[in-house]
TrEMBL record:
InterPro entries: ASHA1/2-like_C, START-like_dom_sf. Belongs to the AHA1 family. This is Activator of Hsp90 ATPase homologue 1/2-like C-terminal domain-containing protein. Residues 12-152 form the Activator of Hsp90 ATPase homologue 1/2-like C-terminal domain.
Length: 155
């Protein structure tokens, strides 16, 4: 059976606001890195077939070994599908010498109106074998908590 990592959260903001935060480079830098990391976007092309390159840095390298260097994860993300207010499909490739991190991971962000808010569910398939499932799901949940805090504070 193919592995599927997932996490979800209800965010007190409409789908359009959540979708906007998925396609704003400064917003992504603020909320996408999970707890214990910082992010910086180097390239940005928000269209199907476009994407971005993000440098994720561990301020304390002992807290989590990087995939690219001792304290960084570099990931190239392509936008496979963009459906305003409903879905963002990303294809992520980590820059790493270790084959345990090779391959393309697909992250699908599903947005569903839930009263005045949005149910956000993230599913990840093709997750590299070197990424522990429980740790990955915790990281996705952390990013969702950051997204909620960001969107709810700005909305």
């Amino acid at each position: 059976m193919d592995r599927i990592d997932r996490a979800g959260r209800t965010i007190a903001a409409p789908p359009a606001a959540v979708y906007g935060a998925l396609l704003d480079p400064r917003a992504l830098e603020a909320w996408l890195p999970p707890e214990g990391m910082r992010g910086r976007i180097e390239r940005w092309d928000p269209r199907p077939g476009g994407g971005f390159r993000m440098i994720l840095t561990y301020p304390d390298a002992a807290g989590g070994p990087g995939k690219t260097t001792a304290d960084t994860d570099v990931v190239d993300v392509g936008f496979a599908e963009l459906v305003p207010g409903e879905r963002v499909v990303q294809e992520a490739v980590f820059e790493a010498d270790d084959p345990a991190y090779a391959g393309t991971m697909t992250m699908t962000w599903h947005l569903t109106a839930a009263g005045p808010g949005t149910d956000v569910t993230v599913t990840a398939t093709g997750v590299p074998a070197g990424i522990d499932q429980a740790v990955h799901e915790e990281a996705i949940a952390s990013s969702l908590a950051n997204l909620a805090a960001h969107v709810e504070a700005t909305g």
